[in-house]
Here is the input.
Amino acid sequence: MGIVSVSLNDKNLEALDEIRSVFGLSGRSEAIRTAVNMAMSEIQGLENMTGAVEGVLIIVRRDHADPWMSLIQVKYESSIKTQLHSHLKDHKCLEVMIIASDAGALSSLIKEVHATGKADYVRFVRN
Here is the structure.
């Protein structure tokens, strides 16, 4: 088993401890392994999608003033059928998008959102 050193901010440490507690894990290493396995499951779900897909994409993003989400939405406007934008506390925003798209385009959109590192939550609920 490999050993990896990771630097986490206080919020990430609190989340890690909550993962450990909720799942009844013995330590932070188990919590990290669980989080990695859950992320891999989500990636596999994206990669296994084929053909036309429909569903709802939910994103909570930080910093309302940052235009990164608008740029992504313009790039994928043919996949986004309807969208709702709502302001949340602490300058965060909720984006809810009804998606009807080719699986490859949806996968690219979601990967691009994750790659910015500016979303606190990203979830696609398939119809």
About this structure: Residues 10-46 form one domain. The first strand starts at residue 52 and ends at 61. The two ends are 39 Å apart (CA to CA). The chain has two domains: 10-46, 51-126.
